[in-house]
Amino acid sequence: MARELVTVRVRWRNNKIAEYTSQVDAEDARDVEGLFKDAVAHDPNSRKRQLSEYEIEVYRKRDNRHLLTYMGRTT
User: Fold this and answer.
1) pTM more than 0.85
2) For position 75, what pLDDT does the model report?
């Protein structure tokens, strides 16, 4: 699958903190992880929070179809 334009909704502890447009190949695990890290960077308080407290919802821009939900994990 190729990269496509998506809407990314960023949540922290189930509270929506950001929404923006990006590109991702939803079938490429590294690309999705990179999108997640970029999404967390949209939170000015991210240095005080754990990655495991975040999740992103990704929707295809052209038809608003839900592609995936990615939850942070403790490493």
Assistant:
1) yes
2) 57
